[in-house]
Amino acid sequence: MRLYYASDVHGSDVCWRKFVNAARHYECSILIMGGDLIGKALVPIVRKDGTYTTWVVGEERHAGSAEELEELEHAIRMNGFYPLHATPEEHQTMRDDASYRQRLFSKAILEDLERWVELAEERLTTTGVQLYVMPGNDDPWLIDEVLERSPVVLTCDGRIVDVGGHEMLSCGYSNPTPWHSPRELSEDDLYAKLRGLAENLRSPETAIFNLHVPPYDSGLDTAMELDAELRPVLKSGRPNEIPVGSTAVRQLIEEFQPALALHGHIHESRGLTRIGRTVAINPGSDYNSGRIEGCVVDLTVNGVKNFQLVSG
């Protein structure tokens, strides 16, 4: 069995299309999306006097033609945001009314996700490819229903499912982050949740652990240290890098020693390692470049045969 895993696409249409197409490109029978699907915010495009104005990563930009407008929308989406056309009055309402802004954001999330699911159904329905998708810690709860009602998307969060004869344990929660995202648990609670699932495994040694957050101090969880104001901590004039993964995830892997552990969450910590006999992988994420980072893994009844980080 060959599988392709990727994570952390954060609203990138380009990356989602490439993810769906990866089954054919890499000749995989299994696709696994490891969470953090949605974009990060709305970006209004304000139309006034025939000119469009928006702000992309803090920079004010303008468009005066259909081609320039398309370029603006593309730039917004490439950075993990949702473009939204608005009049000056609507823009002011968005700025003044948090509940109105949240309703628009939720609407954009659902419309994009529904479009993604339709694309997956269109391209995978008759192929025999199995598509597993779970939310990540950044994903709001409202997306779960969209995923669960699709006949092609196999939801797996908080469950053990059969994947080509291997049990796959999945969990999209993370340990606490500075951003207080929707799906976080303390290390103790996360361990209890994961342990409760793992105790139901029939064959842990051949299992796949699909866990959004990587294990602590594994080389798959290195990120910049942040202070209370979310600013990088500098040491000797350089950002200080620290492990930020989960001790609960590490303990679980050490105790159960699955054949394969798949992780995301820390975009800049792309890599492969072993924890005991477990092959652990974080393919990283570079969604705002339009490139999807992933990994291809060949599994046999005896465990992992081959594994490779890929990019495209």
Description:
With 312 residues, the protein is an alpha/beta fold. Helices cover 29% and strands 30% of the residues. It has seven helices and 20 strands. The chain has a six-stranded mixed sheet with strand order 8-7-2-1-19-20. α6 runs parallel beside α7. The mean pLDDT is 95.
Task: List the keywords.
312 residues, alpha/beta
Brief overview:
The protein is an alpha/beta fold and 312 residues long. It contains 7 helices and 20 strands. It is 29% helix and 30% strand.
Structural class based on helices, strands and sheet pairing: alpha/beta
> What is the overall pLDDT average?
95
Count of helix runs: 7
Helix amount: 25-40%
| Quaternary structure annotation | single chain
Calculate the terminal CA-CA distance, rounded to whole Å: 21 Å
Q: Which residues form runs of ≥5 with pLDDT under 50?
A: none
Cα Rg: 20 Å
Tell me the strand order in the biggest sheet.
Answer: 8-7-2-1-19-20
